[in-house]
Specification:
The complex is a heterotrimer of chains A (about 220), B (about 55) and C (about 240).
Chain A lengths: L1 H13 L1 H20 L8 H20 L5 H5 L2 H9 L3 H29 L7 H25 L7 H6 L4 H16 L3 H31 L1
Helix pairs in contact in A: 1-6, 2-3, 2-6, 3-6, 3-7, 3-9, 6-7, 6-10, 7-9, 7-10, 9-10
Chain B lengths: L8 H6 L4 H37 L1
Chain C lengths: L1 H8 L2 H33 L13 H28 L2 H33 L7 H21 L4 H30 L17 H33 L4 H6 L1
Classes of the chains: A mainly alpha (about 220), B mainly alpha (about 55), C mainly alpha (about 240).
Amino acid sequence: MIKIFQSEFFKLRKKLRTWLGPLLIMVLVLIAFPLSIDISQYDLNRFYFSIIVVALLMISFLSTEGIFLEDYEDGSLEQVYLVEQDFYKFVLAKVLTFVLLIGVPMAGIGSVFSILNGISINEVPKIFFMMFLSNLLLFNLFAFGSSLSINKGAILGVLATLPLALPIIILLGRGVRTIQHGIGFEGVMALMVGSGLLVASITPLIISATLKTHLE
Amino acid sequence: MSNLAFSSFNDFLHMDGHGVYVWSAYIISTFIILLAFLTIYRNIQLIRKRIKDARG
Amino acid sequence: MFSSFVHRFSSPKSYVEITRKFFPYISLFGFLLLLIGWIWGLAFAPEDAVQGNSYRIIYLHVPASIFAQLVYFFMSICALIHLVWRVKLAAYLIKSAALVGAMITFIALFSGSIWGIPTWGTWWQWDARITSTLILFIMYLGIITLHGSFSNLEKADRLMSILVVVGVVNIPIIKKSVDWWSTLHQSASITISDGTSIDPSMLYPLLISIFGMGLTLISLGILSSKFYILTREKNKKWVQSYV
C-alpha cells in the first residue's frame, strides 16, 4: 500500500502542469476577484469567503478531470487489474496523492487569503482544517466523476457529479460562518470529519467498480 | 363538485387577475406533454419503418 | 416460480408484448383522470382564502413535483436490478425513464416559478425545495448526457446505473443540506405547509390529478421505452418479426 502510494506520489510530482497549474489558477482567481469590484463601495469581508469556496469547488473540479486518463491510456490500469483484481488500494493511493499535492496547498492558499480578509490568525488552523476536509470530499467525488468518463468527453462525467458536490459547499459555507460567529464550530467539524472518513473509505470501492466496467 | 366557483365564463378565464398565470402554466405544460407523446410516437413509426426497410 | 416470472418478464420481447396489451387502458384512463382532476380543480374547487385563484396551479404543480422524485426513485430501483442481476431491460427502462423524469421535473420547476409570480412577487426564490428540484433536474440531464457519450452501449448502461445509485444515496443528503442552508435565509416563503389540513373539496381533485398524472407519465414511459428497445435491439430476430 505504501509502495503504491510512493510511486503515485512521485509520478504526480513530476507532472508539474497537473498540480501546479490548478494552484496558480486559484491564486489568480482570488487576486482577480477584489480587483474586479469597487472595494470602496462593498464590504469585501462579507462575501469574499464565498469566492474562496467556489474557487475550491472549481479548482478541484479542474484538477481531477484527467485523474485516471493517463493510466488508462498507457495500460497501467490493466496491469493493476491483472495483478490485484481490484482497484481499491490503487484508487485510495491515487486520490490521497491528489489531496496531498493539490488539496492541501489549496487549503493553504484559501486560508492565507482569508487572513488577508479579516480573519484573525488564531482562527486560521480551523479554516485550514475545514478546507482540507472539504477538499478530501470534493476530490473523492470528482475522482468518481472522472472515472465515469475516463476518456470520453473528458469533463462530462465530472459534470454529472457536480450537483452532488453542492452539499459539501453548503457544509463548508456553514462551517466558515460558525468560525466568523464563534459558535457551533465543533458540531460542523465533527460532521465533516465523520463524512470525510466515510466517503474517503467508500468511494474507492465505487470507483473501482466503474474502472472495472471500463476494462471489461 | 356541486357548484361552480365562478359566476361567468369570463370570470373563469380572468380568475381575478391570476388567469394569466394559471392558464399559461396549464397550457404550456399540456403542450410539452403532448409534444413528448407525439415525438415519441413519430419516432416509433420511423424506427419501425427503418427496420422493415432493412429487412427488405 | 418467482424467478422464472422475473426472467420471463425481464426479456424485452415479453415486456413490449405485455405493455402493448395494457397501454390503451393505462393511457386512456390516465388522460381521463387528469382531465377530470384539472376541470374539477380549475372550475369547481373553491377559491383559496389566502392565495386567491392562483392556487389552482397546485393541480399541475404538486403532481409534477411528486413524480419528479418518484421517477428518480424508480430509476434507482432499476439501476440496482441492472447492477446486481445484469438485467438488460432495467437499463433500457432507466434510459427512457430519465427522459420522462427530466420533462416532468422541468414542468414542476416551470409551473412553480409561474406560481411564484402572483404569490411571492418573484418567479425565482432560493427556497430549499425549489433549489433541490433544480439540482434534481440537472442530475437528470447529467445522466442522459453521460449515457449518450459512449459508443459502447453496454458500458454506458452500467456506468449510468452506478451514477444513478450514487445519486439516489445523495438525494436525501442534498435535501437535508439545502434545508439546513435555507434556514439561514430569514425571508419567509409561503409554502403549502401540511397536506393533511387541506380542505376535502380541494383535496379530492388534487388526488385525482396526481393519479391521472401518474398514469399519463407511465404511458409516456411505456412509449419511450418501446422506442428505445426497438432502437437497441433492432438487429434481434424478435424485433424483425414484431414490426
